[in-house]
Specification:
By secondary structure, the protein is mainly β. The protein has one domain. Helix content is about 0%, strand content about 40%. It has 1 helix and 16 strands. The strands form 5 sheets. Strands 1, 2, 7, 9, 10, 11 and 13 form a 7-stranded mixed beta sheet that branches. A 3-stranded antiparallel beta sheet has the order 12-8-16, with no helix packed on it. Strand 14 and strand 15 form a beta hairpin.
Length: about 230
């Protein structure tokens, strides 16, 4: 899977016990009375931030919960995607943010039946919806199978959720710190629509052209090193 390294390598060697240079002059007599001007300039110590993030993800809609292969196992979930990782070799903790998490559905064909509507994007489970509907969300955390994994919901406009996980400091290129994420959700298996001309309820089964797409952006917020987090 293609990955992109976001290397905000604002790298600067940090040496404990570093000395700060200073210069002194001796003033005597009238010179001491007149005084001495002192000037200085600053330097900035910045963190090393190096994060590797997947650039693509894929989902499979499985309305009738057919058995599908996923990795080394199988699943019957209605929305299937592979678990992916974000890794960090940074020297500060990073809060992970999800920006503009958006679901885009296909437009209706110009000859679509009267009364048929585009796929609805739900804010909660779509299982009991009548019209063709989908609910998508992201699980993200150190372990997406754990109960404390964060749920981040998507919608048709784009949702931004801050501080959904933490990438711990102290990772290296060979042993990075990690956060997992996976896309999940559900659909209604047997959707219908009401013909606006005849008022009849018509079956609207899922087809191979019902290909929704998702998009989102990960951003990272460096955190101050404190005694409580090992700084």
């Amino acid at each position: 899977m293609k990955k992109k390294i976001l290397s905000v390598v604002l790298a600067m060697t940090m040496v404990l016990g570093m000395s700060i240079s200073s210069f002194a002059g001796t003033l005597e007599g009238d010179a001491a009375v007149a005084g001495q001007d002192v000037t200085g300039t600053s330097t900035v110590t910045v963190p090393t931030i190096s994060v590797t993030v997947p650039t693509t993800t894929a989902i499979v809609i499985n309305p009738f919960q057919l058995t599908a292969t996923l990795g080394e196992g199988t699943t019957t979930e209605q929305v299937i995607s592979a678990k992916q990782e974000i890794t960090s070799a940074s020297n500060v903790d990073l809060l992970v943010n999800v920006e503009n998490f958006k679901v885009t559905v296909p437009e209706l064909a110009s000859n679509a039946p009267a009364g048929k509507k585009p796929i609805a994007v739900m804010s909660a489970t779509a299982a009991k919806a009548t019209a063709k509907s989908i609910y998508l969300y992201m699980l993200i955390g150190a372990d997406v199978s754990a109960t404390d994994a964060k749920t981040v919901k998507a919608d048709a406009k784009g949702v931004t959720t801050k501080a959904v996980a933490t990438l711990a400091k102290g990772g290296t290129a060979d042993a990075p710190k990690k956060v997992e994420f996976v896309i999940k959700g559900d659909v209604n298996a047997n959707p219908t629509y009401t013909d606006s001309t005849t008022k009849a309820v018509v079956a609207d089964p899922w087809t191979t052209t019902d290909t929704v797409s998702v998009a989102f952006k990960f951003t990272f917020t460096p955190q101050i090193n404190t005694a409580s987090n090992g700084g």
